[in-house]
Amino acid sequence: MNVFVFSGPDGSGKSTLVKELSKSFDTVPHRHIVSWRRFFHVFSKGVNFLGRLLKQSYYFITPTVRHGYHDYYGILGIIYILTSVFDVLIFARVWWGISDIRHKHYIKIIDRFYLDIVADLIVDTRRTRLVLFLFDPIIRMHLRQCNVYLVYCEPDLVKQRRPDIASDIKYGEKVSTYCLLRRLYGISVINTSKSCPKDLVRIIPV
User: Fold this and answer.
1) What angle do CA 151, 194, 149 make, to 5 degrees?
2) Of the candidates 161, 158, 163, 160, which has an alpha carbon nearest to the alpha carbon of residue 62?
3) Which of 1-5, 51-55, 91-95, 187-191 is modeled with the greatest confidence?
4) Buried-exposed string 157-183: b where 16+ CB fall within 10 A, e elsewhere
5) Which of 16, 91, 108, 144 has the fewest CB neighbours in a 10 Å radius?
6) Which of the 8 DSSP states describes residue 42?
């Protein structure tokens, strides 16, 4: 498989790993491409617009950062999940599929993908069973077709490195959701708590 995907909570070191892995491919005769695939909102944008009107989608503002949240815990959450599935199956897969065809013989390095979409939906709606029921086939296909890594760093250490994340009131919930996905699907973990991403790139089989 020539596709490497890095998923995980903010501040865990995904983007740094992607950068270092990309550098490692600069020294070999392989063309590679880096992409970011966390969001692809089409119909779900309409739900977010409605959420803002209902004050279920909002910003939590501190002196240094602005965090965006969705509290879609009722019927709006179900609609959001269904429209997100539709967006992924119809629009995202077509758009990303075209890119994959264009770069068929490239090594692909992806910063965030399906696991991150699923984690966001679970945190935003708290309807874990419904999200996993609808996305399970997509996740399993994703794991078969790609080298997927969950990047993890101890939350306290992340908050020391990233003051903006220290004020994220849902950060703990996000970390717990990724841990749940790791347990359910047996995803390989790269722990950046004690080693820098530059050193950890060496353990990735290329």
Assistant:
1) 15
2) 163
3) 51-55
4) ebbeebeebbbbeebeebbebbeebbe
5) 144
6) S
Location of structure tokens 């909002």: 58
pLDDT at 95: 76
Report the C-alpha gap between 34 and 5 in whole angstroms: 10
| DSSP string for residues in 113-146 | -HHHHHHHHHHHH--HHHHHHHHHHHHHHHHHHS
Sign of the dihedral defined by the CA atoms of residues 92, 98, 100, 103, in that order: negative
186: burial class by Cβ within 10 Å (0-12, 13-18, 19+)? exposed
127: tokens are 């309807």
β-bridge mates for residue 28, sequence order: none
H/E run at residue 76: helix 75-86
pLDDT at 30: 67
Whether the CB-CB separation of 77 and 92 falls below 8 Å is answered with no
The pLDDT value given to residue 96: 72
Calculate the average pLDDT of the chain. Answer: 87
| AA letter at 9 | P
